[in-house]
Amino acid sequence: MTDDAALDSAPATVLVIDDDDSTRYLLASWLRRGGHTVIEAVDGAQGLALMAAQHTPPEVALIDVRLPDMSGFEVCERIKSAPGTAGLPVIHVSACAITPEHHAEGLRRGADAYLDQPIDRDELLATVTASLRYARVRRRAERLADRLTTLNRTTLDVYRAIGFHSFTAAATGGAAALMSCAASAVFLSPQGQAVHSQVAGPGETPRSLPAGADLLKQLAAPLGSATGAVIVRVRRARWKALLPDDHLDGDVAVVLARTQAGRPPTCLAIPADAVRGTEDEELFQQLAHACALSLEALRSYNDEHSLALALQRTFLPARLPVVPGLDLAFRYRPASDHAEIGGDFYEALETASGTLLAIGDVAGHSLAAATVMGEIRHALRAYGVEGHAPHQVLDRLENLMAYSQPGITVTMCLILVEPGGRRIQVANAGHIPPLLLGPDGEAAFLHEHGPLLGLGVAHPPSTPHETAPGTRLVLITDGLVEERSRDLDDSLADFLSAAARGPADPEALCDALLLAFGEDRDDDIALLTARLG
Asked: Where on the chain is 4-aspartylphosphate found, per UniProt (predicted)?
């Protein structure tokens, strides 16, 4: 790693354009003795062609004002107008164009300095060094601005990652983009699995593989138990011993970062020669620190979400009652591993009046919605066991919510299957209508419904429906059929057709409906089916 000030004054490749052989030889000799590499041209066209042909363009151009094919001023303008050489310092030299007017024109048309002949050797070398220093500082500032933009973009990418896979891709790819080289990384997933990620270079697709359980512990030795970030150099032999399959094939610079004591660190690695100064070290460490913060937040979210889902599932029945003459099946599917938990619920309860089936949805997606769902479901069971009719259960739940959950709304559909299964009573508080599938192939939604729970409005009496043996009931929450880009009536029509063609067995029917409608949903799904008689 080198000092920036020393780099700014280091020798460079200099282009000398002069049609006078002796003058060109003298200037080139002085520059070479000063440590510079010199490219020589006899006119403007040759000089511009040499610049274009160089894999690495020269860093300074020394141009005579009077050239045989074009003026040095015009050569300068062409250099300054090309994006790849716009920042190249141009120094004019002349033995005849030496008036203040000539100086002014040269500087106005893009030159960075103007020297009159005869030129003093020390003045020439000092002018070249000063021009280099200024250009390099400017380029470094521009590069730093670009890299800070890349760091900011990568930080945003790792912070908004919604899963560990997208986090590893953003972090490893971001390291390659920031440091302009291949990169590797080792992280411990929220599930406790060490993962080795690597990318061939900026813009390439990262790939990840499982890693040894103790790999991070071995890598973390330089950091100890401290928090923060540290960058260390690891010799090739040591790195290959730790990660034999890694694509970095030399000494590596490894940055380790930890934001909470006791946690395994994040580990980012790049070729050691990609870290060329303190600026590179600081940017690399900032990226690692951002990755550590993001991964810690991802771990915390994963822990909290797992606990919330576990709590939510305790509110739902683990099994349904066994009732002679009534076949029941249910399914519950959370939206995704990264969505907030919701308030969908279902219930089947034996009462003195028959079997009470229920399905509902508390408004909102949060732990609060899940806890309200738990309270509502337990109250539903209590009121159902007391033998109240479905609409009377809704009225009692309405009173409970006004007292304990004001401002919360709930949709709920209750169906009482009377003993023998020849008649049902339906009370619907603003929920998706239940689907009745007759044994003769007829299918219809039962659209009778009342107001949502939580509005403080009385509920209409339950609606009776006669049912024949073999009749099936399907109760769902809106997560199964509701799509933002589609009319709900169209979705319900498709659902009715699929259910009517579906298997007679309730378990098989649940599976078929979930397969047809339950994939890639952004809402929880609850599904309850029953076959009567």
From this structure: 64
Residue among 257, 263, 338, 254 nearest 291 (CA):
257
Q: What letter does residue 525 receive in the DSSP assignment?
A: E
Q: Give the Cα separation of 234 and 219 in Å (integer).
A: 10
Would you say 59 and 88 are in contact if contact means Cβ atoms under 8 Å apart?
Answer: yes
Taking only Cα atoms into account, the Rg of the chain, rounded to an integer number of angstroms, comes to 38
Q: What is the DSSP letter of 433?
A: P
The model's confidence at residue 342, banded by pLDDT at 50, 70 and 90, is low
Centre a 10 Å sphere on the Cβ of residue 338 and count the other Cβ atoms it contains: 13
User: Phi then psi for 344, rounded to 5 degrees?
Assistant: -70, 140
Tell me if 38 sits within 8 A of 28, measured CB to CB. Answer: yes
**By three-state DSSP, how is residue 334 classified?**
coil
Among 204-208, 260-264, 496-500, which stretch is predicted with the lowest mean pLDDT?
260-264
Q: Measure the CA–CA gap between 3 and 278, rounded to whole angstroms.
A: 8
> Using omega within 30 degrees of 0 as the cis cutoff, is the peptide bond preceding 464 cis?
no
Chain segment 464-509, per-residue pLDDT in tens: 999 999 999 999 998 888 887 788 899 999 999 999 999 999 999 9
Q: What gap in Å lies between CA 464 and CA 416, rounded to an integer?
A: 9
Whether this model's pTM surpasses 0.90: no
Rounded Cα distance, 88 and 86, in Å: 6
Tally of residues, the chain: 533
Q: How many C-beta atoms lie closer than 10 Å to residue 404's C-beta? A: 12
